[in-house]
Structure formats: structure tokens, C-alpha cells
Amino acid sequence: MNEDDVTAPDRLRWWLSLLETTEADELDCEAVFDLLENAVEAVNAGEDIAQLFPAVALHLHHCPSCQDLFDTLVALAGSPTA
Description:
The chain has helices spanning 8-21, 29-44, 49-52, 54-62, 64-78. By secondary structure, it is mainly α. It has one domain (24-82). The two termini are 26 Å apart.
């Protein structure tokens, strides 16, 4: 979805979901980066990262940059040429 296509109510819903799910002790981007390889392997094996790596899944929900990186790594790891 293009950022220009996102409506004000959609952005408000996203911000509210962040507030609802924020926890006192969350991983930062660097800590998540260190765990991404394991999370990518789990997803490509059909596992649910929300169960295996709940802190990583929460960070990905909150951080569009890390989510984009994760999605790219999952796609690359799952490609036949990887």
C-alpha cells in the first residue's frame, strides 16, 4: 500500500494499535536484527513467530522499517535461488 493511499482514520487506527500493544520492556531494532535470521527460518518452515518469538513479532508490528526488512528476508529465503 502506498503511503499516500493511507487515510487519516487508518493512521489513527494504527497509532491506537501501537498504544494498546506497547509494553514496558520491548526489543529495539538492533536486538530484533540479531534475531531475524531465526525468525525468517521459522516463518519459512511454517512456524508462527508470534508464538516462537513474541517480542520480535511485537517489534515488527510497531516498526515498519524492521517489518519491511523482515518481509524482504522471508521472500529472499523462500525463493528457489536462495
